[in-house]
Amino acid sequence: MDRSNLWALKKLPTITSKRLVFRKMLPSDDEDMFEYAQNPAVTRYLLWEPHISKKFTRSYLRFIQSQYSAGTFFDWALTLAENGKMIGTCGFSYIDKENNSAEVGYVLNPSYWGRGIASEALFRVMEFGFIELDLNRIYVRIMEGNTASERVAVRCGMRHEATLRKSMFIKNEYRTIKIYALLREEFLRMR
Q1: Which of 24, 27, 99, 172 has the highest count of CB atoms within 10 angstroms of its CB?
Q2: Per-residue pLDDT for 125 more than 90?
Q3: How far apart are CA 16 and CA 133, in angstroms?
């Protein structure tokens, strides 16, 4: 049973925060995306490998357009409000309609690390999920060792719920995954 307002994601809306505009990724974002997506430090704790060329990034962004059109992709480009530069992505990587919950993910250009931007982005996406979509639970899976991402989750009010030892085979090794989550009722109390 679908208990949420997921219809609001069918045409991924543009939303904003203090410093960011969250919009659909565009093919014209290829230069900005490649700038961070080709960096092994960025993808170290992600499921995907660094982008090998700008051509690969362009192809990926064209593919994403078809996913937006199909209503099956819920990840925003994070762009700076001051100049429109795309500096990362944040959004819902999985939505569990039956249980009214969603997994979030985020990635940021290292030139913008340490400025609170990832926390601002995650908080705004969680706000959208809890308020606009009426989700009950939002969680993130973080590879062990990614302490910066854990700090972002905690800063946004998420709690560590579980550590799944060597539970995912990623980049030719079994990786331990930590799960952080926040409930709608907790989010509303902290607002």
Answers
A1: 24
A2: yes
A3: 16
Position 1 pLDDT exceeds 50: no
Angle at Cα 100 formed by Cα 165 and Cα 145, nearest 5°? 25
Cβ atoms of 130 and 187 within 8 Å: the answer is yes
Q: Alpha-carbon distance 71 to 85, whole Å?
A: 25
Q: Are 10 and 19 in contact (CB under 8 A)?
A: no
CA distance 72 to 65: 10
Out of 10-19, 54-63, 118-127, 151-160, least confident range = 10-19
The pTM score is 0.93
Confidence of residue 172 (pLDDT cuts 50, 70, 90): very high
- For the CA atoms of 6, 119, 185, 160, the dihedral, rounded to the nearest 10 degrees, stands at 110
Q: What is the mean pLDDT of residues 38-49?
A: 94
**Parallel, antiparallel or unpaired: strands 101-108 and 137-143:** parallel
Q: Residue by residue, what is the 3-state secondary structure of 28-50? A: HHHHHHHHHHCCHHHHCCCCCCC
Residue 157 near residue 121, CB atoms below 8 Å: no
